[in-house]
Amino acid sequence: MESGVFHTTYASDMALRRTPLMRLRLIVVVVFLLVFPFVANGYQLTLANQIGIYAIGAIGLNILTGFTGQISLGQGAFMAVGAYSSGLLAARMGMPWWLTIPVACTVTAAVGAVFGIPSLRLKGLYLAIATLAAQQIIQWLITNWRGLTGGVEALVVPTPELFGLRMSTNFRFYWVVLFFATLTTIFAVNLFRTKIGRAFIAIRDQDIAAEVMGVDIFRYKLLAFATSSFFVGLSGALVAQWRGIVNYERFTIETSIFFLAVIIIGGLGSVAGSIYGAIFMTLLPAILTNLGGAVGGSIPGLAGILPFIQQGVFGLTIVLFLIFEPEGIAKIWKNVKDYFRLWPFSY
Amino acid sequence: MLARRWLSMVLVLGSVLLLIGCGGAEPEASEETIKIGAVYDLTGATADVGTPYADGIRDYVRWLNGQGGVGGRQIELFGADYAYTVDQAEQLYSQYVSQEGVVAFQGWGTGDTEALRGRVAEDEIPYMSASYSAGMQSPDDAPYNFLVGTTYSDQFRIAIDYAIENSASGSPTIALLHHDSPFGQSPLEDGRAYAESHGAEVIGISMPGGATDYTAELTQVQGAGAEFIVIQNVSSPAATLVKDVDRLGMDSQVICLNWCTDELFVSLAGGAAEGVIGASPFAFPSSGVAGLEEIREYAESQNKNLDELGVHYVQGWTTMAVMTEAISRVLDAGDEVTGPNIRAQLEQMSGFETGGITSPLTFTSDDHAGNKALVLYQVQDGLWVPLTDYVSAE
User: Which of A290, A341, B56, B245 satisfies CB 3.0 to 4.6 Å to B317 for a cystine?
Assistant: First the structure.
């Protein structure tokens, strides 16, 4: 009987999937992801695509906020940069959609790095305000730089096509999202096994100590902003290509706060947590709405106040989650696994 | 102890998963019903006006079903609150279209209408909403969007006509104070071009969201010597603005476009609302036009008072009535109730009378803005009183 997980070689200690159970779970997840689109209907695919796009954005934000400790309220604006870059390149310059996505990511990374410069002098709440300024400046530029963005009018993105197939349907776009989400996840998980990733974590834990140890704070903070923005831009570009319409109203400060909520609930400094958070924050409102629809008809007088109850329950669930497990869903999941792995002989 | 905690946690997780599985399965609809989807704003940024509008839509369907439905078939309305967020609107839309098979859709705001514009065209779902942006008017851009209210651009043109007629100089400067959004800026360019060709001048000033004081913006208005202030914003900021106009002792005439021409504006602005002119494509309950009678009757049968429900209730009711009218014409023609057929019937709708609630509606295959005229009202003793008959831009 196992009483814990013990590694006898460095290789097994450093492996991403350290136990047979972990590898089994990975297989189950992969099979599920591959089978899901064939059994799901349009609604479930819409939810899945939203979750995938949110997960990419949340991983991006988590690299910056969860792993490097730099709080950002500019997420919405960086998504907008990605979405507009991808949309404008496709609409105005006729660039193929799959090419606009990496270009949009790169543009967003550059913009993110520029707005990351204040982080060299500012920390914590002060940095939050500086990134809030980034949100406002970018939003203002989008709505007022009409020659480029078309101002407040929605930007219509040409339908993405691959080998003559229209990719923006829920089913086909699922594979696009899955492809990019997988790449993002693999990149992010491995990033924190490299020198750069560990430098990020060192900056988060104690920036002065990190500098003393030889981490070039200037370089790595900007790198963190650029890396993070790269993925945030990716999620924005995917929104643009999937929806075919880009409007700045989708990328306001509320979006920034939504993503902060996703990573806090999912688990700060956890790649898996970003994904759990995206799933949770997408499905909870959907479940509450469906539950409301099912219950609403049966109890008279309830229908009128139901939307408010839903909002209340949504908030309450988040608060309870945070009280009982401040480290997020990722930690809850870890606890569950730890408990059952050693069951019935935990402790 | 700990074991029990984790067990309960696992149970919670399990039941959540179960719920996801069950989410789509419930409503048991007969083949005979006609399904329409809707999103409402009951809790979001525009819930104050979104709630009566949603009530209007839902009550119309209840009333119609009570009358026997359309061509003997009941309407089944699938709707939920989307809290004015685009993502939730998209979720609900795709749920209703792909799971429930709705054939037409009632939206609400500019954000969801814009975001779904391409999707409704692909899915061939006729879409009506309370966003009257002229950008939705052309079937080339938005083949399945239909506007039941007068477009914001036309509303502004009518306001400009009024300003020119009632200006001392005959060539007034008109300030458009607008919400800082697509909704707010929508009429600006069209209005500016229209004013220039009529010898007037338009300046656009955006109203920052959440402001509690508009002295700075009004100083700009004074500086430009504007005789008229047109407001393209919702009631609460508009009320704050007219209070500031009053406080600063300005003598500019204020004209509200339709989203601040409502009962809420008067109750929020109080005395400062006196004399304000409002452009409303939909008749106020107090106007007593013939079309309101059945609405009033239904409201009374539900122990509600139409005067309290207000103009946005009438707006929601009428928008739904136009949609079901098209469905009824599809049935009369002996066709199947599908999105393309509803669209075809809407595009043939010419001079449709709503009993005076709106001007007669005409949609064509190259113009989906069916409503070209509106009534100018004025606040007198705390009530919106009609100032004109139906007027349209030249």
Answer: B56
Per DSSP bridges, beta strands B253-256 and B277-280 are parallel
Q: Note whether A289 contacts B86, CB cutoff 8 Å.
A: no
Backbone torsions φ then ψ of B43, nearest 5 degrees: -130, -5
Coil/strand/helix, residue B38: strand
Q: Rounded to 5 degrees, what are φ and ψ at B316?
A: -65, -45
Interface predicted TM-score (ipTM) of this complex, two decimals:
0.75
Listed by number, the residues of chain A in 140-169 with a beta carbon closer than 8 Å to a beta carbon of chain B are: 143, 151-154, 156
Interacting residues of A57 by C-beta distance below 8 A, sequence separation 6+: A75, A79, A231, A232, A234, A235, A236, A259, A262, A278
Q: Distance between CA atoms of B329 and B341, rounded to whole angstroms?
A: 9
Cβ within 8 Å, pair B43-A311: yes
pLDDT digits (tens, 9 = 90+) for B288-336: 888 899 999 999 998 888 888 999 999 999 999 999 999 999 999 988 9
Q: Which residue has the tokens 């550059």?
A: A110
Q: What is the dihedral of CA B99, B105, B106, B111, to 10 degrees?
A: 90
Contact B86 A250 (CB under 8 A): yes
Cα–Cα distance between B91 and A246 in angstroms, integer? Answer: 17
Whole-number Å distance between alpha carbons of B99 and B236: 38
Note whether B257 and B179 are within 8 A (CB): no
Angle at A6 between CA A4 and CA A7, to 5 degrees: 160
Q: What band does B15 get if pLDDT is binned at 50, 70 and 90?
A: low
CA pair distance B62, B74, nearest whole angstrom: 9
Q: Give me the amino acid identity at B338.
A: T
Question: How many whole angstroms separate alpha carbon B385 and alpha carbon A218?
Answer: 66
Residue of A184, A183, A213 lying closest to A198 (CA atoms): A213
Q: Pick from B6, B19, B90: which is nearest to A335 by CB?
A: B6
Q: Tokens 């991983």: give the residue.
A: A59
Put simply, whether A252 touches B (Cβ < 8 Å) is no
Tokens 């060299």, residue?
Answer: A120
End-to-end CA distance of chain A: 14
8 Å CB contact between B78 and B100: yes
Segment B141-195, tens digit of pLDDT: 889 999 999 999 999 999 999 999 998 888 899 999 998 877 888 899 899 999 9
- Whether A59 contacts A271, CB under 8 Å: yes
DSSP letter string over B336-374? Answer: ---HHHHHHHHHT--SB--TTSSSPB--BTTB-B---EE
